[in-house]
């Protein structure tokens, strides 16, 4: 490792970081270096990933590991102790210099830093914190910083990470405690959730302090997030949805990210031989969206899954699957239905529902009026009643998947 130059290290450690999906820059506070003070801003090649802010801006982040060496031997991790991969390690100063150099070349607007565990959890956490501390205090860096924290590290180090970072994240790794014990026996679900609980309390305390004293230091203003690996164990989609909902409720997480298991070289015999369909990951994100923005309760999302397997259908989205299971609730009158029921209509998004509610105060809505608020009215027609439209009742024998589901297109082999 000592003979590698910085470029070679960057190539290895940027590639090793690609398995971490919990990379986002939403929710942070605005900072700027306008006026010649500081370096970087939150307004605004190799190892660079793209995240999206709430207002739709694309933000580029330098996404790397401090090292891909690790003293743990988690079965699902390509960087595990027994894995036969090329190892590399950055010093804290090298990461700081890379971040500043990339920013000054307008390649990035922030840093996402994670790491394998070397020597001990405390030693590794010290190195991660030192990167953030140096950027903030030595160089007055005002860009975005996301740090992956280590649950077993000293709470004082975790607290320092929150003082310097915009967002912190602690991976729960797997949806169930039995799965974690089987595939990552050196990790503990209790310790992981304990670290999340402490971080949530620290964020709440800092928010309360700033409410009383505006000069109080900020603490992880973009909150905390986590990531779950999907398909490495026997957890069903229903298990994952319930786990995610529990994490949101108990620890005030900003996001739960899902990462489809990817087969790795020299894999353990306890791992599946092939990856789960990427569409499964997508359906879980859609389910997450339903709970966060559409008012669905976790048990409603679970009800959309197959009763025997606990899996969400891959050919249609969870919202349509739920509507087809509960056909007796449809069609609904767009001129009278409450907002929470309109949000359950397949094909109606939050903006479209808000537009319907605003428009119907002035006139009776016709099907053409609803069509102007949506991308396609074809998916809506079986589920709504308008001033000039009333569909046939949604009988069990009615086959609604073809008109409601997305059209399949044959791709050309030599396009």
TrEMBL record:
Q: Which SUPFAM superfamilies match?
A: Radical SAM enzymes (SSF102114), RuvA domain 2-like (SSF47781)
Q: Which CDD domains match?
A: Radical_SAM
MF-aspect GO terms: catalytic activity; iron-sulfur cluster binding; metal ion binding
Q: Give the protein's cofactors.
A: [4Fe-4S] cluster
Q: Which UniProt keywords apply?
A: Iron, Iron-sulfur, Metal-binding, S-adenosyl-L-methionine
Can you give the residue ranges of the Elp3/MiaA/NifB-like radical SAM core domain? Answer: 60-287
Keyword Heme applies: no
Q: Which SMART domains match?
A: Elp3
Name-wise, this protein is: Putative DNA modification/repair radical SAM protein
Species of provenance:
Sphingomonas gilva
